[in-house]
Design goal:
Elements: H1 5-15, H2 22-25, E1 44-55, E2 58-66, E3 79-80, E4 83-85, H3 93-105, E5 113-117, E6 121-123, E7 128-136, E8 150-157, H4 158-162, E9 167-174, E10 177-187, E11 190-192, H5 194-210
Parallel strand pairs: 1-7
Antiparallel strand pairs: 1-2, 1-4, 2-3, 2-8, 5-7, 6-7, 9-10, 10-11
Helix pairs in contact: 1-5
Length: 212
């Protein structure tokens, strides 16, 4: 249904049009949601890649579980897309997303067709403005995790994410804080929440609009 040239072309077309942005992102935002509007003047830039690819003719998305070893990483142990901060050597945010994807999960940029870009998300807890890109690989990449940054690679079928039963709400303890009624995606025992869940929400909206 989804892994066809026609579907990929429709998704690319959707990404070139005005995006729903906060309307879809905030569906998966924890409270207080207005924190995501409090953009600082000195934010740093980062880019991530949501990579779609087929496995046995079913489209999948790849996520990573970030390493838990860095005490200074405010997102340690969390689920995210491959990506990271913009470096001076990066010629663009797109190049940053592709470079980080290669470094973290071993996918060559030559094997990725960038379809477009989602709405940016301000991650207030770490003061990053994150720019998400959507990529497509025609076959399953040979993933190689960077052990220093990636604890686990998660390959999630698109149909799984689209099932409403896998979109849930619960209280989460993050470091010393208890967050109440946090919306999240259940990924085979892993909890996908926060900014990456917000990006995923917008992507899934566009995927559903691209379906015929």
């Amino acid at each position: 249904m989804y892994n066809t040239p026609e579907f990929i072309a429709r998704l690319k077309s959707q990404l070139s049009r005005p995006l729903p942005g906060a309307t879809e992102q905030l569906r998966m935002a924890p409270d207080p949601k207005h924190y995501y509007d409090r953009v600082s003047d000195d934010y740093r830039k980062a880019a991530v890649l949501a990579l779609l690819y087929p496995v046995e003719n079913r489209l999948h998305l790849v996520y990573i579980k970030r390493s838990s070893g860095d005490a200074n990483d405010k997102h340690a142990g969390q689920i995210s897309f491959p990506g990271g901060k913009l470096e001076q050597t990066d010629k663009s945010l797109e190049e940053c997303a592709l470079r980080e994807t290669n470094e973290e999960v071993g996918v060559l940029k030559e094997n990725i067709n960038v379809l477009g870009q989602l709405s940016k998300v301000f991650v207030f807890v770490s003061n990053f403005m994150v720019y998400p890109f959507i990529g497509y690989a025609e076959s399953r990449p040979n993933f190689i995790a960077d052990d220093s940054e990636v604890e686990q690679i998660l390959e999630i079928p698109l149909e799984y994410l689209l099932e409403t039963k896998n979109q849930k709400v619960k209280d989460l303890k993050i470091r010393n804080y208890l967050l109440k009624d946090v919306p999240y995606y259940s990924l085979n025992g892993h909890v996908l929440w926060g900014a990456t869940a917000m990006m995923t929400s917008e992507l899934l909206y566009l995927i559903k609009k691209s379906k015929k």
